[in-house]
Each structure stands twice: as C-alpha cells, then as structure tokens.
Amino acid sequence: MSPSAAFQKLARDDVRTYLTRPSGPSELIDRIRDSDIVINIRSTSRFDAGVLENCPALRLISIWGTGTDHVDLPAAQSRNIRVTNTPGVSAVAVAEHTLALIMAVAKRTVDVDQKVRRGGWPRAMVTQLRGKTLGLIGTGAIGREVARLGAGIGMRVIAWTFHPRGDVAEWVSLEDVFRQSDVVSVHLRLSKETSGLIRAEHFELMKPGVMLINTARGGIVKESDLIHALRTNRIAGAGLDVFETEPLPADSPLSTLRNVVLTPHAAGITPEATEAGLALAIENVFSFLAGRPANVVV
Q1: In which domain, by residue range, is 102 found?
Q2: pLDDT digits (tens, 9 = 90+) for 76-89
Q3: Coil, helix or strand for 136?
Q4: Are 137 and 181 in contact (CB under 8 A)?
Q5: Who wins on pLDDT, 162 or 8?
C-alpha cells in the first residue's frame, strides 16, 4: 500500500503512531499521557473521564469518523478539551456496505454459498427487492445516501429521524417504519436518546419477512431482543456490522444464526474513505492550531 498523502502532512511534526489498539485505559493513558493532541482512528479506544484526568496536557481529540460515543464529552468539555470529528467522509462507503448487507440477507448469499461448497444445490426462494419498502431510521449523510441507493433499485423509501427535513424520503413515525417496511436500516448516532432505542416492542410491529440492517452502532438495538426475534423467526434476518460488544465475542449467539450476515465494523473502511477521513482529521488539527477549530463536537 502506498503511503498516505494525508499523513505526509505531519512529516515535520513530532508524531507517535500506534498500529495496534490499546488493551485498555491504562495502556491508552501510557500512550497519550504527555500528548496535547490525539488523532483517534477507532472507537474501541475509550476516552472516559479517568483517561482524560490522567492526560493533563491534552487539548484536542481529533476523531476519524462521525461517532463520538467513545468520548466522555461532558468530561472533555469540563477540562477544556476540544473534540472534533469528520462528518460525511465515509457516507458512500457505509451506504454501499449497507446495500451489500441488504442484498446478502435478502438473497441468502452466505447461507447458500456455504451449502454449495458442501456439495448442496439449494433452490429455495429468495427475496426480490424492487417494489419493497426500505425504512430508514436516521437520515444523516449515510442515511441520505442509502435512500438514494434504495430508490435506485426500485424500492419505496420511508424514513424517521429526530429532525426531518427535505425530501430525502417519505416521512413517517418511528412505529410506522417498523409497520410498513420490508427492510429496516439503522443510521443514527449512539447517544443517551438512542441507546436501546430499538427493542422487542418494535420487532413485534414488523410484518412477516422483514430484515433489519445495522451499520450505525450496536448499542442502538437491544441485542438480546434482536436475537430472540431472529431465533423465533419474528423477523426474517439481519445484516450487522456493529454490535453491543466489539469485537463480537466468540460465544455470541449471533454467530450461530444462519439468518444473520456479520461483518466486523468495517463498513467505512475503504481506501477512499480512509484517506479522506484521515485528511480531514489532520486538517481539523491544523485548523485548531490556527485558532479556527472546525467540525467541533464540543
């Protein structure tokens, strides 16, 4: 792989890079204790109040990505630590991955592939998507791109979000997304308002044969309720890139369900999105140092 053009902008600066995730808060503190700026790539590194307290020099956390649920924002604000993110840079990549999961679940691609490899020749019916209803929960940059892709393959697109605007889709209530959709796709940020938002009562609203897709955050969907709905065939299947615990534990019941397609929180990892995200995360650092902070969360 060729060197990142964005990273070369830091060539003259005192930069320490780590290619592995810290094992926990202590190792994270050891890595950044004396740093005044941190560029954070993966949300598995948690900047909680204890970490921030033990890093007194820290002035900026520049996040590659949109989600900030791994940072204690009130604690950062109280310590006058700026937090920035990179909105929109991975929207196309995540939207394409969402469509890939929809296709994989609808066409039973993984299950059929495994049966053919074992000498089988399955002829079961699969789902045709044209004419079906795609329900979006959240219509930020990713949700809007998914709406465009869904309409592009002939699906009716409906949506619910906290602050609906524009003509992204046909606006309906949260409950009607579940009542009317053949595919429900989640595109919200994880927050106090959205944690555990989707649960058993919503699965009960679904008509037979519905699929759930989540490329947002695992904590938005109550995982035990989802597993029950999948086991009892209350819903037909799920495509999941995110989970309540990441990496997904080896003993997770999701690993044994044949009506689930799993990917490792990798929807936004393409060369194009990675480079664009790193470039904006670095640009956010330069903007901060110039006294003109951009893409500020707190």
Answers
A1: 91-262
A2: 999 999 999 999 99
A3: strand
A4: no
A5: 162
Within-domain flag for 277: yes
C-alpha angle 156-107-136 in degrees, rounded to nearest 5: 30
Question: Token pair for residue 250?
Answer: 């080896």
- Give 277's pLDDT tier (boundaries 50, 70, 90): very high
In SS3 terms, 192-256 reads as: CCCCCCECHHHHCCCCCCCEEEECCCHHHECHHHHHHHHHCCCCCEEEECCCCCCCCCCCCHHHH
Structure confidence at residue 1 (pLDDT): 42
Question: Which position among 27, 96, 246, 283 bears the catalytic label?
Answer: 246
Q: Is 27 a catalytic residue?
A: no
Distances (CA, A) of 151 to 98, 216, 257: 14, 20, 29
Please tell me which residue in 82, 97, 144, 217 is annotated as part of the active site: 217
Amino acid at 116: V
Flag whether 296 is in a domain. no
295 in any annotated domain: no
Average pLDDT over every residue of 35-52: 94
Backbone angles phi, psi at 283, to 5 degrees: -60, -35
Residue that has been written with the tokens 């890079």 in this structure: 17
State yes or no: is 217 an active-site residue.
yes
Instruction: Give the count of domains, the chain.
Output: 2
Per-residue pLDDT of 240-255, as tens digits, reads 999 999 999 999 999 9
Work out the mean pLDDT of the chain and round it to a whole number. Answer: 96
> Do the domain assignments include residue 298?
no
Q: Count of residues for the chain?
A: 298
